[in-house]
Amino acid sequence: MPSIRVALVEDNHQFLAELCTLLAEVPFIETVGSYTTGKAALTGIVRTCPDVALIDLGLPDFSGIELIWSLAERRCSTECLALTAYVDDAHLFAALEAGAVGYLVKDEASLATLVQVIQEAKDGGAPVSLASRGGCWAPSGHALSGPIPHTLQISPRVNERY
Questions:
Q1: φ, ψ for residue 79, nearest 5 deg
Q2: d(Cα 19, Cα 41) in Å, to the nearest integer?
Q3: Cβ-based neighbours of 64, under 8 Å, separated by 6 or more
Q4: What is the largest CA-CA distance in the chain?
Q5: Are the C-beta atoms of residues 50 and 62 closer than 8 Å to each other?
Q6: Is residue 20 within a helix (H) or strand (E), and if so which, with residue range?
Q7: Residue 7: which residues within 8 A CB-CB, separation 6 or more?
């Protein structure tokens, strides 16, 4: 199996180190970059063009949503997965609208789950955590619960896209 090149974007240094350690155990996953800010991630991901990026939504300089938008604007081919503590519809839909192919809640981030969602994203899938609103969107893309919000209070830059 060819290796899957992965970038990690997480401002919590301990969680980032744990992610790196976990993914290092998987022989077909190669971590090609780890970043603690959106600015560093944008530069690094555009430069290295990994297959998949796991992106925290709560970054210190700008949001993970803005990072995903910025990568999409640059036509970066990296598949972006939101890896976050947020379990609300607003963040879920904002991440997907920005261009994320999937959404994983950190509480579900076991090694097996990480490997599964990374592989699914690389293979063109759209992995979405069922914990994000108690099953609001099944991984097969069926049944949304509730309306898509028209205005999201993430940041002015993201809101101007809606």
A1: -80, 120
A2: 16
A3: 9, 38, 55, 56, 57, 58, 82, 84, 95
A4: 43
A5: no
A6: helix 13-24
A7: 31, 32, 33, 34, 35, 41, 44, 45, 48, 50, 52, 53, 54, 78
CATH architecture of 4-159: 3-Layer(aba) Sandwich (3.40)
Residue with tokens 């090609």: 32
Amino acid letter, 29: I
Domain locations along the chain: 4-159
Of 61-65, 83-87, 124-128, the one with minimum mean pLDDT is 124-128
Pairwise CA distance, residues 160 & 140, whole Å: 29
What angle, rounded to 10 degrees, do the helices at 64-73 and 89-98 form? 20
Q: pLDDT of 100-158, one tens digit each?
A: 999 999 887 788 889 999 999 999 888 776 554 444 433 333 333 333 333 233 333 33
pLDDT at 2: 81
What's the confidence (pLDDT) of residue 131? 52
What would the pLDDT profile of 23-32 be if each residue is shown by its tens digit? 999 999 999 9
Cα-based angle 92, 153, 96 (whole degrees, multiple of 5): 25
The Cβ of residue 93 has, within 10 Å, a number of other Cβ atoms equal to 21
Distance, in Å, from the CA atom of 75 to the CA atom of 140, rounded to the nearest integer, reads 26
